[in-house]
Amino acid sequence: MATPVSTRYVAASGAAIRAGRAAASSLALTGNLIIGGDSITEAGLSSDPFPWGLGKTRKSLRVAANTALAGRTIQQLLDALTAEVISKAPDVYAVRIGTNSQTLPAATFEAQYQQLLDTLMANNIFGLIHAIPPGGAPAGPYCVARNNYLRTQCAANPTKLFFVDDCVDVADSNYGAVPAFFPDGVHPNPFGAYTIGSRMAAILAPILSATPFLNTDPADVYPANAGSNQYVQNPMFGGSAGTLSGGATGVAPTGWTVTGAAGITLASSVVVADAGDANQNPWLRLVLNAATGAGQISISQQIQNPTIPADNTVKRFDFASDIRLVNMNTANVGTLSVSMQSTYTGATIDTEYLRMTASGILNETLTLRTSKTRDTTQSIAAGSVRLTISLNTTAAFTTPNGYLDIRCPTVRGLTT
């Protein structure tokens, strides 16, 4: 077991490392990310904080897979590690595991986790080691001790591991689960996931690469530009020849469909970027004016991908977009979803979910990115993929509930 001998270290770059955290100049993580864990991290569940945590950094890690499964223990994760992670050779592996292993003796817990850390380091996969959250049994002091162990291992290997202590805001003074965030005592609710994700973003932002990945060039569009791998048409929302559907009024940019489901009153417009914003491309603004209950608003487009054969020519569709929530009353909305659906194969290529907090008025700007590997045994016909960005309503309201702003939606076909 590695044991630190100081509270101050020096990275290979010469940058100082303090409290187990490398200075931002020594780390600039980028590339493919695989996420692992248990039900607290499983994709699509309301407890998953990663969409908020990664989105709020507005940085360039792309999620190649979320392999977390409900009920997983550390040993079960180890048993699946080669197939799910090592064989995929991601640049970064982010893991939150341990809640279902709290009954293990400390020595067994540490031996199993050490095997995980050693395997990542031996395979040159950078490990983002996320704190075990409060909750479960015995929790409290047990989790604190295990987290301190993980912190120590990361401090001893600062160019290979990084401890993400992102659960401090959802725990009480004894590191017990605060009921407002953990109604069942174990799993974060959407408010808990948002709170953990917000802390996660603040910790991760300094160590992630700021390499641009959004399309901010209106000419970077296939097939008009045959050399482009970016398939969204009119990503800067020009023109007004699109389609307004259902309760939507206002402007539908050319090539886009703006929809308000039955019972929803929605106003669509294109607004300029704020002065001083590094990205001066406009936003498409959707104002939720009223709803009679559960429903959905969305923008969608049949993106113009080329024919993609059943091979590794295109391994993933990499989606990214700026998303801004303005004065959004989260008591009346539920989930923001991004989906890419192939009408040719009938298969969903990728879906990402962002659960609203149900905790009041939200003002946030994120860059959502999802880039999971597609099924390469299936071919995809040209122009057969539909991109949809949607937000569902969960309750009735008669006064404006806030804005959903969308900017520079990007879908690239990637070979890696």
User: Which sheet architecture does the biggest sheet show?
Assistant: 6 strands, mixed
CATH architecture of the largest domain: 3-Layer(aba) Sandwich
Helix percentage range? 10-25%
Q: CATH superfamily of the largest domain, please?
A: SGNH hydrolase
Report the β-strand fraction as a percent range: 25-35%
Number of helices: 5
Outline, from the CA principal axes? globular
CATH class bucket of the largest domain? Alpha Beta
What is the CA-based Rg, rounded? 22 Å
Number of domains: 2
**Could you name the CATH topology of the largest domain?**
Rossmann fold
Concise synopsis of the structure shown:
It is built from five helices and 20 strands. With 416 residues, it is an alpha/beta fold.
